Amino acid sequence: MGRILLEAIVVLVGLIIATVMGHFITIRILKRLSFKEKTGLKRAGEIIGYLERILVYVAVMVGSYELVGFALASKSIARFEELKKREFAEYFLVGTLTSTLSALITGILARMVLEIIP
Questions:
Q1: For 28-63, what is each residue's pLDDT tens digit?
Q2: In whole angstroms, what is the distance from residue 44 CA to residue 54 CA?
Q3: Domain spans of the chain, in order of start
Q4: Is residue 79 a contact partner of residue 48, using CB atoms and an 8 Å limit?
């Protein structure tokens, strides 16, 4: 198998793990919290989470960590008024940090794997 094909497979598998597994990890952690208030469009938070993890993973893969800050800032600006409620702010922060961390770790591991490919 050629090096380029192997690298592409590593990047794509990492992207799938970052987005899909990151989603399940985040949902599992958030379900442990007692926050039940639903706001906004149906499933919008889920879609935003997927997009966030894709952006963070891509940022790590290209070495542009400023994009991670952009993703976090964008979410915070969009939820600014709601973040004044402590319970929502804590729920939001747990979800955002879990989601971001899962994509960061996956991206870092994928980069490490890419470095050892002969």
A1: 998 888 777 666 677 888 899 999 999 999 999 999
A2: 15
A3: 3-116
A4: no
Mean pLDDT over the full length of the chain: 91
Distance CA 102, CA 79 (A): 21
Residue recorded with tokens 């070495």: 63
Query: Measuring CA to CA, how many Å separate 75 from each of 55, 60, 92?
Result: 12, 19, 9
Predicted confidence band of residue 73 (pLDDT cuts 50, 70, 90): very high
**H helices within the chain, ranges in order?**
3-16, 22-31, 44-62, 66-78, 86-116
Burial class (CB in 10 A: 0-12, 13-18, 19+), 74: middle
